[in-house]
Q: What sequence folds into this?
């Protein structure tokens, strides 16, 4: 049973994850789902927990703390606790458009 008290939206979009403190820590991953105050990512490599990162996809950008990063098959699943409400900064925008095809595919796919 899902014990979360916030509605989560599933997605499958390419996102860029970059450390705020160390810009050398950066990778592309997939945005798996999001809620009002967090999101879940599928990453090709491990990132250290506790770091502050920016996650960008399409025209949206969210900053938060990486609260976990665990093996997930050959990849990693990471969870981000957002600094600000994600719905306010991304979903509630009236000018949002559907993602471009480039946002839906990783390079090399």
A:
């Amino acid at each position: 049973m899902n014990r979360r008290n916030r509605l989560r939206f599933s997605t499958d979009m390419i996102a860029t994850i970059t450390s705020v403190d160390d810009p050398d820590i950066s990778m592309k991953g997939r945005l798996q789902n999001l809620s009002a105050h967090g999101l879940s990512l599928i990453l090709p490599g491990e990132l250290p927990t506790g770091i502050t990162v920016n996650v960008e996809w399409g025209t949206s950008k969210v900053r938060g703390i990486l609260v976990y990063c665990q093996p997930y098959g050959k990849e990693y699943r990471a969870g981000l606790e957002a600094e600000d409400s994600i719905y306010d900064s991304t979903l509630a925008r009236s000018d949002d458009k559907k993602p471009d095809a480039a946002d839906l595919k990783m390079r090399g796919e």
Remarks:
- The chain has one domain: 9-89.
- Residues 86-91 form the longest helix (6 residues).
- The CA atoms of residues 8 and 104 lie 19 Å apart.
